[in-house]
Write a structure and sequence with these properties.
About 60% of the residues lie in helices and about 10% in strands. By secondary structure, it is mainly α. It has a domain at about 40-115: Arc Repressor Mutant, subunit A (Orthogonal Bundle), CATH 1.10.10.10. It has a 3-stranded antiparallel beta sheet. A hairpin with a 2-residue loop joins strand 2 (about 85-90) and strand 3. Helix 4 crosses helix 5 (about 70-80). The protein starts with 15 loop residues before the first helix and ends with a helix.
């Protein structure tokens, strides 16, 4: 069933105050835009999908992506700076995992939608 939208117009019934009240603050929007920018790169998205159920070292991620390790490290650094992934050291290895659970939930939702579209 389709949701009935509320119509707001400057010449008639306006819901301006209600709409403004529910909008996120500028700082929240800025943080959200950083997340979407990070998710807007195919390589970073692939990294994040790989990390949904795994904690992966940089070398293994380079093999998964078939990319040079410095290039993978650069992409992981971007994701780390945006607080989307975290890493922990184990001896000489750095293992990455998803830090931002909201991003993880978005990725899982995308996978769910894709499986529904494929009829799985």
């Amino acid at each position: 069933m389709q949701k009935k939208l509320i119509r707001s117009c400057c010449e008639g019934t306006s819901h301006l105050d209600e709409i403004i009240k529910i909008l996120p603050k500028d700082e929240e929007l800025l943080q959200t835009s950083y997340i979407f920018k990070a998710l807007g790169d195919k390589t970073r998205l692939k990294i994040l999908f790989a990390l949904i159920d795994y904690e992966i070292c940089v070398g293994e991620m380079a093999r998964i992506l078939n990319l040079p390790q410095p290039q993978v490290s650069h992409q992981l650094k971007i994701l780390r700076e945006k607080n989307i992934v975290k890493f922990k050291k184990d001896k000489k290895m750095s293992f990455y995992s998803i830090k931002n659970k909201q991003v993880e939930n978005i990725l899982k939702l995308i996978l769910k939608i894709k499986s529904i579209e494929k009829g799985l």
